C-alpha cells in the first residue's frame, strides 16, 4: 500500500499515554498517511474511527529481545509468524537475536531479516547482529557491515561473549557506531549440565543447577569492561539480586550500562520446576523469590529501564523432551501485557506510564531507532490496550508457531485491542468503524 493510500484514522476518547512527551490525558489521536498528526487532527472526516473510550492509547510497544528462528528453525517460528505474534501482543517493533542457522553475522544475513520483515508486513523487524563470527566467541564479526545491513545492536545471545578480550574489543569497536553490546551474562564453566537455578529447589529435585553467581560474575566483569572502554553495555534478561545491585552501582558511577527484565523473571520462581514441566525451563533460569523481589525493586527505581520478552519459541516435539534434554526458552510476546499487568501494575509496583516508558521510548533510545513516541510527525505505530478486559491464556490461540508458555490457563487482565503500524491497522479485536473494506481480524 502506497503512502497516499494510507487512511486518516481517528482514535477517539482514549487515555493517551506517551512518556516521551510526558502525556497522560483523555483525548483523540489522529493519524494520516502513516504519521501522527498534531492534536486536533484534520479538518475532515476520518476514514477509520477507532473507539478507544476506556482504553489506553500509547506508542506501539517495542520488544528488543525476541528470537524469530528464521533462517534455520522455521518449524519453531518464522519472521512472519513471530512478527504477527508481536502484533497480537501489542508490539509494533521487535529486535531479533542472531542465534539463527546460519547466524546473523554478515551484512547479507542482516539484510535478509530486514527484507523478510518488510515482506511479512506485521511488526517492524530490526536485526541484532552477532558480536562474533559464527557466534563462536573467537573473532569479532564485521560489525560495520552488519550496521550497513540494518543491525541496531550486537549480541551473541543464546551464549555469552565469554572471552573478556573479545568483549573488550566489541565494546571498544561498537563506539564507532554508537550502538550497544547486549550480553547474555553467564560464565559458561559454571552452568555446565545446568537445567535450573542452583539452590535449595535444584538440590531437592536432584536437577543440575545454574548458580546466580554465574550471572553476577559476568555482569561485574562486563560493567568494568564498559568502564575502561567507554562502550555501551546492555544486560539482557537480568535475573539475580546481585546483578541488579551491580547495575545500580555501575550507573551511579556513570558507566554506560542498561538492563532489561523479562516477565517470567518477575512473575515466577524456581519452585515452578517441581512440576518438571519444561515450560518453566529457560536461560537464565527462574530464580528465588528474593531475586524476583530484587528485579521488581530494580524496575521500580529505574535500575532496569527496559521490559523485554526474550520470546524463545520451540516446537512441541523439542520442548516435550525430558527436562534435561528440552531446549531453554518460552514464548513471550502474547503474554507480555497481561503478565506485566498482573505482576507489576495490579500490585502497585509500577504505573501504566512507567510500564509504557520501559516498552516504548526507553528501548527506542537504546537502539537509536526513531520510534517509541506519539509526537506529531512520528511514524504512526500505535497500540490501543484494553486494560480491563479479562481473558484466559490459551496457547492454542497464539499467532506464534510455538506454544511453549508457562502461563497456559492463567486468568489475566489486559490485552492489545488494536495495533497500528506505519498508519495501517494491522491487528484488531474488532469494533472499528470504517468506510470501505474492514481490516482482517488479527
Ligand atoms: N532464553 C532462552 O531460554 N533461550 C533463548 C536463548 C537465550 O536467550 O539465551 C533461545 O534462543 O531459545
Ligand atoms: Zn540469552
Ligand atoms: Zn534471548
Can you describe what's shown?
It is a single chain. Helices cover 28% and strands 21% of the residues. The chain contains 13 helices and 18 strands. It has one domain (59-378): Alpha-Beta Barrel (TIM Barrel). The strands form 4 sheets. Strands 1, 2, 3, 4, 5, 15, 16, 17 and 18 form a 9-stranded mixed sheet that branches. The protein has a 4-stranded parallel sheet with strand order 9-12-13-14. The chain has 442 residues and is α/β, with parallel strands linked by helices. The structure holds N-carbamoyl-L-aspartate and zinc ion (2 copies). Residues 67, 99, 157-158, 184, 282-283, 310, 312, 327-329 line the site of N-carbamoyl-L-aspartate. GO terms for molecular function: allantoinase activity; dihydroorotase activity; zinc ion binding.
Amino acid at each position: 500500500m502506497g503512502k497516499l493510500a494510507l487512511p486518516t484514522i481517528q482514535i477517539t476518547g482514549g487515555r493517551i499515554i506517551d512518556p516521551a512527551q510526558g502525556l497522560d490525558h483523555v483525548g483523540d489521536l489522529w493519524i494520516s498517511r502513516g504519521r501522527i498528526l498534531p492534536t486536533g487532527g484534520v479538518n475532515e472526516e476520518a476514514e477509520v474511527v477507532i473507539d478507544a473510550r476506556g482504553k489506553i492509547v500509547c506508542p506501539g510497544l517495542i520488544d528488543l529481545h525476541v528470537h524469530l528462528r528464521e533462517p534455520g528453525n522455521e518449524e519453531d517460528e518464522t519472521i512472519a509468524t513471530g512478527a504477527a505474534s508481536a502484533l497480537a501482543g501489542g508490539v509494533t517493533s521487535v529486535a531479533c537475536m542472531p542465534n539463527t542457522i546460519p547466524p546473523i553475522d554478515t551484512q547479507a544475513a542482516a539484510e535478509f531479516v530486514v527484507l523478510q520483515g518488510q515482506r511479512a508486513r506485521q511488526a517492524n523487524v530490526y536485526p541484532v547482529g552477532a558480536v562474533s563470527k559464527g557466534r563462536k566467541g573467537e573473532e569479532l564479526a564485521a560489525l560495520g557491515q552488519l550496521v550497513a545491513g540494518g543491525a541496531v545492536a550486537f549480541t551473541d545471545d543464546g551464549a555469552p561473549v565469554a572471552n573478556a578480550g573479545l568483549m573488550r574489543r566489541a565494546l571498544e569497536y561498537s563506539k564507532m557506531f554508537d550502538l550497544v553490546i547486549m550480553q547474555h551474562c553467564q560464565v559458561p564453566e559454571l552452568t555446565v549440565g545446568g537445567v535450573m537455578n542452583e539452590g535449595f529447589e535444584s538440590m531437592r529435585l536432584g536437577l543440575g543447577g545454574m548458580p546466580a553467581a554465574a550471572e553476577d560474575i559476568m555482569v561485574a566483569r562486563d560493567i568494568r569492561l564498559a568502564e575502561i572502554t567507554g562502550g555501551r553495555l546492555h544486560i539482557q534478561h537480568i535475573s539475580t539480586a546481585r546483578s541488579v545491585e551491580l547495575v545500580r552501582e555501575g550507573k551511579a558511577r556513570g558507566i554506560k550500562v542498561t538492563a532489561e527484565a523479562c516477565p517470567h523473571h518477575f512473575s515466577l520462581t524456581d519452585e515452578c520446576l517441581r512440576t518438571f514441566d519444561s515450560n518453566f525451563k529457560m536461560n537464565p533460569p527462574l530464580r528465588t523469590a528474593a531475586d524476583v523481589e530484587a528485579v521488581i525493586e530494580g524496575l521500580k527505581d529505574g535500575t532496569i529501564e527496559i521490559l523485554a520478552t526474550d520470546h524463545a519459541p520451540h516446537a512441541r516435539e523439542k520442548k516435550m523432551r525430558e527436562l534435561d534434554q528440552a531446549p531453554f526458552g518460552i514464548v513471550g510476546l502474547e503474554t507480555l501485557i497481561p503478565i506485566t499487568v498482573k505482576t507489576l501494575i495490579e500490585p502497585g509496583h509500577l504505573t501504566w506510564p512507567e510500564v509504557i516508558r520501559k516498552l516504548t521510548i526507553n528501548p527506542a533510545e537504546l537502539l537509536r531507532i526513531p520510534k517509541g513516541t506519539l509526537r506529531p510527525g512520528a511514524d504512526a505505530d500505535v497500540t490501543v490496550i484494553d486494560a480491563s478486559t479479562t481473558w484466559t491464556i490459551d496457547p492454542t490461540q497464539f499467532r506464534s508457531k510455538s506454544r511453549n508458555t508457562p502461563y497456559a490457563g492463567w486468568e489475566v487482565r489486559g490485552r492489545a485491542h488494536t495495533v497500528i503500524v506505519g498508519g495501517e491497522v494491522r491487528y484488531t479485536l474488532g469494533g472499528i468503524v470504517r468506510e470501505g473494506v474492514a481490516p482482517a481480524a488479527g
